[in-house]
Fold:
Amino acid sequence: MRVLLDENLPHKLRTGLLGHEVMTASYMGWNGIANGRLLSLAESHGIDVLVTGDNNIAYQQSMAGRTISVVMLSATKWMILNSLW
Structure:
């Protein structure tokens, strides 16, 4: 599975997603891109899942017709995320 970590998440989160191709918005040069455009870019690059800490994305973006899934995390601090596994 191809996974994109949004810019609001720590890059270290990649280490917990073994078995997946994980890239970051920063690595892709997509920092500062609005959510709708980010979703479209990710889809056009074959990304399956966007993982984000932006809990407003569900209210801002319609997912109808999209091929990408979005996972919204309630915590974005590495210390909290790292303690989950």
In short: The first strand starts at residue 2 and ends at 5.
